[in-house]
Amino acid sequence: MSNASGPGRPAASEGTEASSFDTRKHTPVQRLQHFLHGNPAAVPMIVVVVSVVVFAATIGPKFYSAFTLTLILQQVAITGIVSAGQTLIILTAGIDLSVGSIMVLSSVVMGQFAMHYGVPGFVAVIAGLAAGGLCGLINGLLVSLVKLPPFIVTLGTWSIFGAITFIYSGNETVRSQDIDQTAPILHFFGNSFRIGHAVFTYGVILMVALSALLWFALNKTAWGRHVYAVGDDKNAAMLAGIRTGRVLVSVYVVTGLICGLAGWALIGRIGSVSPQAGQLENINAITAVVIGGTSLFGGRGSILGTLFGALIVGVFSLGLRLLGTDPQWTQLTVGALIIIAVATDQWIRKVSA
Amino acid sequence: MDSEGFGMNTTTQPILSARALTKNYGRVTALDNTDFDLYPGEVLAVIGDNGAGKSTLIKAISGAVVPDSGEIRLNGQPVQFVSPMQARDAGIETVYQTLALSPALSIADNMFLGREIRRKGVLGKLFRMLDRQAMEKFAREKLSDLGLLTIQNIGQAVETLSGGQRQGVAVARAAAFAAKVIIMDEPTAALGVKESGRVLDLIRDVKARGLPIVLISHNMPHVFEVADRIHIHRLGRRIAVVDPKTISPSDAVAIMTGAKAPPEEGLAA
């Protein structure tokens, strides 16, 4: 613009100096750091590919078959769904320890409604999803309105939702045959179809579709940008005009709904409705998110990374089992991966301008 | 009250003015019956010692703090802001000292934070999809308007920019959306000599566009370089308004710290 000509000129010429300063030679390590900084899902993706190749090379066709590889997908579906929700929370610099409890509570609500209240299956499903959303709403309000730390809030609701699950269900398991007779829709995500030797359950489809949907929401909508901004620097986001409280509540509610979906998929996976199921799902979900490269400090990470993170755990679990190792080696490997992933995140965060 | 007028521009109406603003925090009085006037097209510097209440004054006129009593007028109309968003909607943009940028997001995303443009049609309405192209085009235009086109990639994360470039993005954002007033809180405090110079150029550019600027700064050379008038704040109130062309920086500091009595015309004005 013309009126920038006076004082604007010297500024511009100084600026070119600054930019030429910017394009100075980076060492290969710095360039790698920059690349990883811009592509947070790259590391977990590389790890998935490399680990599949290594297990395929050592185990052979028993591992590297359409059947086995799709079996991994089936095994990680529940964790993948829950950790998609967990990713949203962690992106806001929060953490949700109650995701597993919400999932089981939702599945129990679905089972109770279908079996004892005589409502149609889809009504039971809606009731279960609503229960999940309500749990998320409680978490969200405690975090955003009462301003309690998410860790403490969800540590509390983890116990509360878990206890409600047992009280409400009377510690009763709904058998698979009864579900098939009364409300087969509860088993929907356990149904599968084949493409050659590959077997896909609808639960796997749900995991992939949900990840795609959340990827879109996080990257292509204002809401998604706000989720990142709130996690990155909540104060800055507030001053920039974002209603941070609303964003936080929406994130916890969406995560609650996703946990409800996971509860539905869980019924399909294990067949019955059991209040004892999914006890470790909160830890599994955090593991997948962290291995997937999402930063626990918020504002950085991706839903695709989480999907890869869940796959890494699945690949190592099945691969090591097929190798005939003690299951503790899987635990040990996953533990090491968590620490390596967080160390890598710290290093990437130190990226220089 | 408007007819009283202050400073040099007694003939024109202030675009933003405050009368008898008071704000107490418990027993601490941050604003003590203070006045404030900003005239169209000027750069008004606000100086004051630490604890003089200048940041509370700025927060009151930018909506971040609600005064206990007193009146704020924008273009002669009384306004009451209870949040920064209301002040923003009224056309007052603030460049905070912390910049209020989200480091991990891109330049374009940051410029539109909280007021994103959505795609037209179904993609925008139903899927609420962002119109990245339009946002990036707008951001590029605004940055090049301010001579900041050297930022090559509008999609690059703000945290990869230098301090001065970040300040530039924050100023460009304010300039792009401010309809009436820009408030800048210590824009050069964190910058080196060269980058400070660029920010002062930015202030002149924005002024050349006809937008009045409120500049809060501790840096007297910077204040005297760009300000048209200087509002001196002391012990919670406006103690003087001086003309930087007729007063020396050391005298301004002396008035600010109470070592020197404010000039008669300053009091009267």
TrEMBL record, chain A:
UniProt keywords, alphabetically: Cell membrane, Membrane, Transmembrane, Transmembrane helix
GO MF: transmembrane transporter activity
Record membrane topology: Multi-pass membrane protein
Coiled coil feature spans: none
Lineage: superkingdom: Bacteria
Chain ranges passing through the membrane: 41-59, 88-110, 122-142, 148-168, 199-218, 247-267, 303-323
Localization in the cell: Cell inner membrane
Region (Disordered): 1-23
InterPro entries cross-referenced by the UniProt entry: ABC_transp_permease (IPR001851)
Predominant place of localization: membrane
GO cellular component: plasma membrane
PANTHER family, alphabetized: ABC TRANSPORTER PERMEASE PROTEIN YPHD-RELATED-RELATED
Family of the protein in this entry: Belongs to the binding-protein-dependent transport system permease family. AraH/RbsC subfamily.
Protein name: Sugar ABC transporter transmembrane protein
Organism: Salinisphaera hydrothermalis (strain C41B8)
Automatic annotation (TrEMBL), chain B:
Single GO term (MF): ATP hydrolysis activity
Domain ABC transporter: from-to ranges: 16-260
Keyword Nucleotide-binding recorded: yes
Keyword Nucleotide-binding: yes
PANTHER family linked: CARBOHYDRATE TRANSPORT ATP-BINDING PROTEIN MG119-RELATED, SUGAR ABC TRANSPORTER ATP-BINDING PROTEIN
Entry keywords, A to Z: ATP-binding, Nucleotide-binding
Record's protein name: Sugar ABC transporter ATP-binding protein
